[in-house]
Amino acid sequence: MSCGEPHETDCSEVLDHLYEFLDHEMPDSDCTKFEVHFEECSPCLEKYGLEQAVKKLVKRCCGSDDVPTDLRAKVMGRIDLIRGGHLVPEQDITVNAPTTPAPQE
Question: pTM (2 decimals)?
């Protein structure tokens, strides 16, 4: 997504690191760059607002649930792979999906 206007910080960079910004996991200097970008770019500001709202909704609805240790380890492992630039195979994402037996002929 891009608004088509030139910015000091490119829209793709902002959107690629949006959750780091939302989670306060980036240096203050980068946060300042993002804030300036949001002031200039309404499409990115809109995306930021949407993701912020989703994050608040998830926290409100699921914030008090205990997460099983093995699930947390799996999720954190996948996040590390993605942040490292490694692709996660589609089949790993749906490990617990029910399987339908093949029809008998």
Answer: 0.57
